[in-house]
Amino acid sequence: MDADVGKGRGGDALKLRERAYESIIEKLMARDFLPGEFVSQRQLVARTGLPLGAIREIIPRLESEGLLVTVPQRGIQIAHVDLNLIREAFQFRLFLEKEAIGVFTVQASDATIAALRAEHEAMLALALSRKLTEEEEARAQAIDWRLHDTFIDALGNSIIAMAYRVNSVKLRLIHQERYRIDGRVVPVMREHLQVIAAIESRDPARATEAIAAHIDNARRLALTV
C-alpha cells in the first residue's frame, strides 16, 4: 500500500475519532444526554451521525475521563451525579481556579476586566428589572461559565485547559441534575461581581479568597439541593 495513502487513511480515522469525541462532549453539555442515562453504541451513532467504529474507539477515552461507564448487560451509562462526583469535581475546580485567578489578577488588561464587569452588570440589571426569558437565562449561564473559562485560559497551559474542560463537563452535568441558574441569575451575577471587584484590586490573595468563597457556595448548593 502506498505510504501516503496509509497516512491519509490514518489521518481520516483520527479526525473521525476527534469528531466523535467532540460531538459527545457537546451533547453532554447541551443536555442531549442526561446524567445516569443508559445508551447503546448504536444510539450514540444515531445521535452523533458518526460511524460505529469511531464511537467504539472513543468510548475508552470517555470512560477514563469519568464521563461514561460501561455496565454489563445494560449498556453505556452517562456519568451519574452522586455526592462523590460533586465533591471531587468542585475540589478539582477550586485547586485550578485559585491558581488561575491569581495569574489573571496580575496579568489581565484593564480593558478585559472592564468588559467582564460591563457584561455582568448588564445581565444583573436585566434580571432585576423583570423575569428573564429562557433565552436570556441561557445567556446568563453562558456568562457564568465564560468567566471561569477566562481565568483558566489566562494560564496559557493546554494541558490544564484540557483537564479543566473535562471537569467542566462534569460540573455542567451536576448543574443540570442538581440545580440550574434558572431563577438564580441575580445572586450568581452578584457573586461574580464580587469576584471581579477583587480582581480589580490587583491583589491576588483577595481574588483567590473571592473565587474560593464563590466556588464553595456553589458546592454547598449542589450538595444540599
Characterization of the model:
With 225 residues, this protein is mainly alpha-helical. It folds into two domains: 3-78, Arc Repressor Mutant, subunit A, CATH 1.10.10; 83-224, Four Helix Bundle (Hemerythrin (Met), subunit A), CATH 1.20.120.530. The protein is 76% helix and 4% strand. It is built from nine helices and three strands. It has helices at 3-29, 41-48, 52-64, 83-107, 110-129, 134-153, 158-178, 185-200, 204-224, and strands at 38-39, 68-71, 75-78. The model is unreliable at 1-7 (pLDDT under 50).
Give the helices and strands, then pairings:
Blueprint: H1 3-29, E1 38-39, H2 41-48, H3 52-64, E2 68-71, E3 75-78, H4 83-107, H5 110-129, H6 134-153, H7 158-178, H8 185-200, H9 204-224
Antiparallel strand pairs: 1-3, 2-3
Helix pairs in contact: 1-3, 4-6, 4-7, 4-9, 5-8, 6-8, 8-9
The gross shape turns out to be globular
The top level CATH class name of the largest domain: Mainly Alpha
What amount of the residues lies in strands? under 5%
Tally of discrete structural domains: 2
**What fold name stands as the CATH topology of the largest domain?**
Four Helix Bundle (Hemerythrin (Met), subunit A)
Calculate Rg over CA atoms: 20 Å
Helix content: over 70%
Mean pLDDT over the residues: 91
Task: Please identify which CATH superfamily of the largest domain we are dealing with.
Answer: GntR ligand-binding domain-like
Report the major sheet.
3 strands, antiparallel
- Find the count of extended strands (DSSP E, 2+ residues): 3
**What is the first-to-last residue Cα distance?**
59 Å
Strand order of the largest sheet: 1-3-2
State the low-pLDDT regions, or none.
1-7
Number of helices: 9
**SSE pattern:** HEHHEEHHHHHH
Structural class: mainly alpha
Q: Architecture of the largest domain, according to CATH?
A: Up-down Bundle
